[in-house]
Write a structure and sequence with these properties.
The complex is a heterotrimer of chains A (230), B (326) and C (515). By secondary structure, chain A is of the alpha/beta class. Chain A contains 8 helices and 11 strands. The relative contact order of chain A is 0.20. About 2% of the residues of chain C have low confidence. The chains are: A alpha/beta (230), B alpha/beta (326), C mainly alpha (515). Chains in contact: A-C, B-C.
C-alpha cells in the first residue's frame, strides 16, 4: 500500500496537498488540468522533490527521506528515458545492475526482457537507430528487469501516434499484471485512463484527491474535471 | 597509476649525473649553457683537468641570476656564479654571499681591474648594429636629429637595455634626459629582451638595433655574411665586463678557485670569442679569431664605477621612464 | 529552490579546486613570506595598473565584439575546410610569445607586408606601435578563443528554437533578439572575463607593440620587482593585485551570465532558417581568417628553410616538450573534469573562480614560490619537467572549464534523473555517462591544453639546467645565440607539433561520438 500522509508539496509558490492511500497492485490514473501538478506529484513520490510537510510510506516503510534510486519504484519520464550513447541492451542492463558488470544469468534476463518486448534483434542498437515505439519498448524492458513494486509513468508515450500509444499502454497493462506491480500514470486523455486503469486520482485546485473508480468518475465528473473535459 | 609512474620516471630521470665525482655547481645565464654557447665546450675542457663533475645551471640572464642567488641565500647550491656584470657588482657584494678570489691575470681590458671579489672573463662594448651599406650617425645627438629608426631593450628587463641607459648617463650626465627626449621619435619600440630586438632588426623593422660591437663578428665568422656593422659613436661606448665569483658558502672552495683560475686560462679564453661573441678578458696567445680585426674599436671606453652604478641606475631609470612616457 | 539530489558527487571537483587555489595562493604567500623588505607600491605601479586595465578592457571588448559576427557566420555556414579553418584559427593562441611578436610585426610592422603594399601606392607605413598595437596583438591572440567559445554557445541553441522562430516569420533581426541575444548575454560575460584576465598578465607583447615604457603592465612591474629590484614583497603584492582584478572580473562575469539555459533540444542536426546574407558572412569569415592566418603564414615562411637545417638537439627538445604536454594534459583532465562536474551540479561558483585564477597567476610568482617550496625537499632541477607540466595544466584550466562546464551541466540536467531513479552510483555516472557524454569536449580541452603546454615557456626557465630543454626554451636559446633562422625553423616545428596534437586530441574526442 502506497500512503501519502498529509503531504504538502511546494514548487516555488505553487502548493499541492495530498493525503490518500493506493492499494498494492492497483492501477491508477492521475488526471487533471494542465499545470495542476500531476508531474510534480509523481516526481515527489519518486523522490526528485522534497516534501514541505508530511510523509510517504510504502507498505508501512517510510520513504520520505530515501534518495530516488533507493525507493522501491521505477519511473518513466516524458523524455530522456534512455542514455543515447549506450545500446538498447546496455540500457536495459542498467536496470539490473547500475554500477557493474552483468553475470551470465543477468545477461540472460536482459535477453528475455528484449524478447518480451519483441526487440530480440535490436539489442546492439543505440536509441538513435530505433523508432520512437521501439525506444519506448526498450524503456519498458528495463522497467521489467528492474522488478520494482511501483511503476510511475509521466506520459512517456505522449509523442507516439494513437495506435502505437494504445499498443504501449496494453503492453504496460500486461507487464504490470504479470509482475503484480502497482501503477500510477499521468494522463490527460480519459481514453488512456479508461483503457488500462481502474482508479483515478484527480489533481486540481491544489489538491490531489483520493483515488476513485475511473469509470464512475467520468460518468459523473466533479466541476473541476468537467471544466477540464469540456 | 603505473603509466603515470613511468611517465614521471621519464620526466625526472633526465638529469641523472655521475655521483661518484665531486660536483662543482656553477650558476650562469641561460645563453651561456645553451648548446650554442660556451657551456658545453667549457664543461668538457674543465672536466678534463679537474677530476670533477662541472654542473652548469642556466638562469635567464645576469639580473635574474643575481636574484636567484639572493633568493637561495646562504644555502645556495652554487659554488661559483658566472655572468654578472659591473653594474651588478655592488649589489652582489652587499649580499655578503661572495668570497674574495686569488686570481691574477694579464687582462686585456680597456680599464684596470682591481676588484678582489669578482674575476672578469669577457667584455664588450654596447653599440648600435646596422646594415653595412647604410650610413650611420656618429653619436647620439646626430642619431636624435636623423630619421634613423632604432630598436632598444627595456633596462628593467634586459642587460643591454640597462647598458644603454648607463651609456647615455655616462656620456651626457645631467643632459641625459634631453638626449632621451630627443631620441624618443627615433625609437621604434622597446622590447623585453635582446632576442626580440635583434629578430625585429633582422626582419627590417628598424635601421639599427642596440647590441654589441662584436655582433657583426658573428655574422662574418659563423655565416660568412659581411653585411652587418656596428656604428662607432664619438662620445665613446659603454662597456660591459662580465664577471664571476666564488660563493663564500661553497662546499668545494679549492675546486671553485681552480675554476676561476681556469676561467682566465688560455683554454677558456679561446672558447669565448666565437661562442659568447665577446672579447676575451685575457687575449689568448693565438690572438683574436680572424674577423674580430674588422670590428669597430671605440675611441673611448665608458664605464660607471661599480660603486656608483646602483644609484646612477635608479636615477637614470627615472629619467628614462619620464622622457619616454610622454 | 530546494537543492536537488544530484546524481554525481561534487566533492572530488571541490578538492581539485582547493588544490589549485592552494597552489596559486600558496606560492604567492610563500614569495611574500620570503620577502626581506615589506613591499609597498611604487608610484610607477599606479601608471602600470592604469595602463594594464585600459589595455585589458579594450582587448577584451574588441576580441569579444569582433568574435560575435565571426562565430555567427561560422555557425550558419557549412563549407569545405570549415573544421580545418576552425582548428587553424586556434593557432595564434598557442604560439610562444616571441614567435608571435615577430610574426605579427612581419605583417603589421613598419616594414611588414601591409606597409610594403601601402608603399607601392606611395602611402606611409602602418603606425602599429601604441595602445592600438597592443589591442591588435591581443585581439590576434584572443579572437580565436572568443570565437570558439561563442560558437559553442551558438551550437548549444537547440535547432527547435530556430525552427519555431522561423515558423513565426521572424526576420534576421527579430531572430537575433529572440534567440541569439539571450545566448550572447549568457556567454559574453564569461568570454570578456577570460580575455580580460589573459591580457592582464601580458608583458612582452604589450611592451613591444605598445612601443615603449608607456606600455608598462603590472606583469612587467612584477618582473622588475623580482630581477631588477629583488623586492619580493612588492612582487607578491602586485601579483595579489592581479589576482584580485581577475577574481573581480570573474565574479562579475558569473553574476551577469546567469540566465536560463535553453533546455534540452532533441539533438537535431542544426539547420538554420535565418538565411541572413551569405555575402556578409563570407566577408566576416575571410576577414578573420586573413587577419589570423597572415602572421601564421609569415611564421611558416620564415621557418621553412630553418626547418630542414635544425640541429638534432631541437628534435630532442621537441620530444621533451611532447612528454611535458602529455603529462600536463593528464593533470589538466584530472583537475578539470571533476571541477566541471562540481560546477554542473549546482552553485559551486567558488570552484569556477578557483579555475579562472590560473589565468591571472603570474608564472614568475608561481614558479618562484614553487622553487622556494621545493628546494628544501628536492633538487628543483630534477623536478623541472613535472613542475612545468603542473603549472602548464593550471594555466590551461580556465579554458578547459569554459569548454567542459556547459556540456557537463547539460548531462546532469538531461540524464541525472534517470541515473538517480536507476540507483546508479556517482562513480558509475561519472564513468559511464559523464565521461562518455563529454568526450568531444574532453578531446577539445585536452587538445587545447596539450597545445598550450607545447608552446608555453612556462616556468622551465626558472628550473632547468643545461641538459633539460623544452622546444620553446630551445627556440629562445637559438635566438640568444644569433641563430634566428634555426629559431624560426624551431618555431615552425613547434607550430606544426602543437597543431598536430591539438588536431589529434580534438578529433579523437569526436571519433565515433554519438549525439
Amino acid at each position: 500500500m502506497l500512503k501519502l500522509d498529509k503531504c504538502t508539496i511546494a514548487n516555488g509558490d505553487f502548493l499541492l496537498n495530498a493525503d490518500f492511500e493506493i492499494e498494492t497492485g492497483a492501477r491508477v490514473a492521475v488526471i487533471g488540468p494542465s499545470g495542476a501538478g500531476k508531474s510534480t506529484l509523481l516526481e515527489t513520490i519518486a523522490g526528485f522533490r522534497d516534501l514541505k510537510a508530511g510523509q510517504i510510506y510504502w507498505n508501512g516503510k517510510d520513504l520520505t527521506t530515501l534518495p530516488p534510486g533507493k525507493r522501491p519504484l521505477a519511473m518513466l519520464f516524458q523524455d530522456g528515458n534512455l542514455f543515447p550513447h549506450l545500446t538498447a541492451a546496455q540500457n536495459i542492463a542498467l536496470g539490473l545492475r547500475p554500477n557493474g558488470r552483468l553475470s551470465t544469468d543477468e545477461m540472460e534476463m536482459v535477453r528475455s526482457a528484449l524478447q518480451r518486448v519483441d526487440l530480440l534483434d535490436m539489442g546492439a542498437r543505440k536509441p538513435a537507430e530505433l523508432s520512437g515505439g521501439q525506444q519506448s519498448r526498450v524503456a519498458l524492458a528495463r522497467i521489467l528487469v528492474q522488478r520494482r513494486e511501483v511503476l510511475l509513468l509521466d506520459e512517456p508515450f505522449a509523442a507516439l501516434g494513437p495506435a502505437l500509444k494504445a499498443e504501449m499502454l496494453d503492453l504496460v497493462a500486461d507487464l504490470v499484471a504479470e509482475t503484480k506491480t502497482t501503477l500510477l500514470m499521468v494522463s490527460h486523455d480519459p481514453q488512456d485512463a479508461l483503457r488500462i486503469t481502474r482508479q483515478t486520482v484527480l489533481v486540481a485546485d491544489q489538491i490531489a484527491q483520493a483515488p476513485v473508480a475511473t469509470a464512475q468518475l467520468f460518468e459523473n465528473p466533479p466541476p473541476s474535471l468537467r471544466d477540464y473535459l469540456g | 597509476m603505473k603509466h603515470l609512474a613511468i611517465a614521471a620516471g621519464i620526466l625526472t630521470a633526465t638529469s641523472a649525473v655521475a655521483a661518484d665525482k665531486t660536483q662543482l655547481t656553477v650558476y650562469t645565464y641561460d645563453s651561456f649553457v645553451s648548446d650554442w654557447g660556451p657551456g658545453p665546450k667549457i664543461e668538457e675542457a674543465f672536466e678534463a683537468i679537474c677530476d670533477c663533475d662541472l654542473n652548469l645551471v642556466g638562469v635567464e640572464d645576469g639580473a635574474a641570476l643575481l636574484s636567484r642567488i639572493r633568493l637561495e641565500g646562504e644555502n645556495t647550491e652554487a659554488d661559483v656564479v658566472l655572468g654578472l656584470d659591473t653594474n651588478l657588482i655592488a649589489t652582489a657584494k652587499e649580499t655578503g654571499l661572495f668570497a674574495p678570489h686569488s686570481v691574477t691575470a694579464d687582462y686585456a681590458l680597456p680599464i684596470k681591474w682591481t676588484d678582489t671579489t669578482f674575476v672578469p672573463y669577457d667584455w664588450g662594448y654596447f653599440a648600435f648594429v646596422h646594415n653595412a651599406d647604410a650610413s650611420a650617425p656618429a653619436n647620439f645627438r646626430e642619431l636624435a636629429d636623423s630619421d634613423t629608426k632604432i630598436i632598444i631593450q627595456d633596462p628593467r628587463s634586459s642587460t643591454p637595455g640597462l647598458g644603454l641607459l648607463l651609456w647615455v648617463k655616462a656620456a651626457y650626465g645631467d643632459e641625459a634626459p634631453t638626449i632621451w627626449a630627443d631620441l624618443a621619435d627615433n625609437i621604434v619600440t622597446v622590447t623585453k629582451g635582446w632576442s626580440e630586438s635583434y629578430g625585429l632588426f633582422l626582419d627590417g623593422e628598424a635601421d639599427m638595433v642596440l647590441s654589441y660591437t662584436t655582433s657583426p663578428a658573428y655574422h662574418l665568422i659563423a655565416e660568412e655574411d659581411p653585411s652587418k656593422a656596428a656604428a662607432a659613436f664619438d662620445e665613446g661606448h659603454y662597456m660591459q665586463i662580465e664577471v664571476a665569483a666564488k660563493l663564500a658558502g661553497s662546499d668545494h672552495p679549492e675546486l671553485a678557485d681552480q675554476f676561476l683560475d681556469f676561467m682566465v686560462s688560455e683554454t677558456f679564453q679561446q672558447i669565448i670569442p666565437t661562442t659568447n661573441w665577446m672579447y676575451p678578458a685575457v687575449t689568448p696567445s693565438s690572438g683574436l679569431p680572424e674577423g674580430f680585426d674588422t670590428l669597430v674599436i671605440p675611441q673611448k671606453a665608458l664605464i660607471i664605477d661599480p660603486s656608483e652604478a646602483a644609484t646612477k641606475r635608479d636615477q637614470a631609470l627615472t629619467e628614462w621612464l619620464s622622457a619616454l612616457s610622454q | 529552490m530546494v537543492e536537488r539530489t544530484q546524481p554525481i558527487n561534487p566533492w572530488p571537483g571541490i578538492s581539485a579546486a582547493t588544490l589549485v587555489a592552494a597552489l596559486i595562493l600558496g606560492t604567492l604567500v610563500t614569495v611574500a613570506l620570503r620577502a626581506e623588505t615589506s613591499g609597498g607600491f611604487a608610484p610607477s605601479d599606479w601608471a602600470a595598473l592604469r595602463f594594464t586595465l585600459v589595455q585589458a578592457t579594450l582587448s577584451a571588448v574588441f576580441s569579444a565584439v569582433l568574435a560575435i559576427p565571426v562565430a555567427r557566420a561560422l555557425a550558419r555556414r557549412r563549407f569545405r575546410g570549415r573544421r580545418l579553418l576552425i582548428t587553424l584559427l586556434g593557432a595564434p593562441f598557442i604560439l610562444p610569445v616571441i614567435v608571435a611578436i615577430l610574426g605579427l610585426l612581419q605583417v603589421f610592422g613598419r616594414s611588414g607586408w601591409i606597409s610594403d603594399v601601402l608603399s607601392i601606392f606611395g602611402l606611409p607605413p602602418v603606425q602599429i606601435y601604441g595602445l592600438h598595437g597592443v589591442v591588435l596583438a591581443h585581439v590576434f591572440f584572443n579572437l580565436p578563443l572568443a570565437t570558439r567559445l561563442i560558437l559553442q554557445g551558438w551550437q548549444e541553441i537547440p535547432a527547435e528554437r530556430f525552427r519555431l522562430a522561423a515558423q513565426l516569420g521572424c526576420n534576421g533581426m527579430a531572430m537575433f533578439r529572440l534567440i541569439e541575444l539571450p545566448m550572447l548575454r549568457r556567454v559574453l560575460p564569461g568570454v570578456l572575463a577570460v580575455v580580460f584576465a589573459i591580457c592582464l598578465t601580458s608583458f612582452a607583447v604589450a611592451l613591444t607593440l605598445g612601443g615603449g615604457p608607456r606600455a608598462t603592465t603590472i606583469e612587467l612591474a612584477i618582473y622588475q620587482a623580482f630581477t631588477y629590484d629583488f623586492n619580493l614583497g612588492r612582487a607578491a603584492l602586485l601579483s595579489a593585485l592581479q589576482l584580485a582584478l581577475t577574481a573581480a572580473a570573474a565574479l562579475a562575469a558569473l553574476k551577469f551570465s546567469r540566465g536560463d539555459s535553453f533546455g534540452a533540444g532533441l539533438n537535431r542536426a542544426i539547420r538554420r532558417w535565418d538565411g541572413g546574407t551569405p555575402l556578409l558572412d563570407a566577408i566576416w569569415i575571410i576577414a578573420a581568417a586573413t587577419f589570423l592566418l597572415l602572421p601564421l603564414a609569415s611564421v611558416a615562411i620564415s621557418g621553412v628553410i630553418g626547418l630542414f637545417e635544425l640541429p638534432s638537439l631541437v628534435f630532442r627538445a621537441a620530444v621533451t616538450s611532447i612528454l611535458v604536454a602529455a603529462a600536463s594534459t593528464a593533470i589538466l583532465l584530472l583537475l578539470a573534469v571533476p571541477m566541471a562536474v562540481s560546477v554542473a551540479t549546482g552553485r559551486h561558483n567558488i570552484v569556477e573562480l578557483c579555475g579562472i585564477l590560473g589565468l591571472a597567476a603570474s608564472p614568475l610568482v608561481i614558479g618562484t614560490g614553487l622553487f622556494i617550496l621545493i628546494r628544501p625537499v628536492a633538487n628543483p632541477t630534477a623536478v623541472a619537467l613535472p613542475v612545468t607540466a603542473l603549472v602548464n595544466a593550471v594555466m590551461a584550466l580556465p579554458f578547459a572549464l569554459r569548454i567542459l562546464v556547459p556540456a557537463a551541466r547539460d548531462t546532469v540536467e538531461r540524464h541525472g534523473r534517470l541515473a538517480l531513479s536507476l540507483n546508479m552510483s556517482s562513480r558509475t555516472f561519472f564513468i559511464r555517462v559523464m565521461v562518455l557524454r563529454l568526450r568531444p569536449q574532453i578531446g577539445f580541452a585536452a587538445g587545447l591544453a596539450a597545445a598550450l603546454s607545447m608552446g608555453d615557456l612556462g616556468v622551465i626557465a626558472l628550473f632547468a639546467d643545461a641538459q633539460i630543454a623544452t622546444l620553446p626554451l630551445q627556440i629562445y636559446r637559438l635566438m640568444g645565440a644569433y641563430q634566428m633562422q634555426a629559431a624560426a625553423g624551431g618555431a615552425l616545428l613547434l607550430l606544426l607539433l602543437s597543431m598536430g596534437v591539438f588536431w589529434i586530441l580534438d578529433r579523437g574526442g569526436r571519433w565515433h561520438a554519438e549525439a
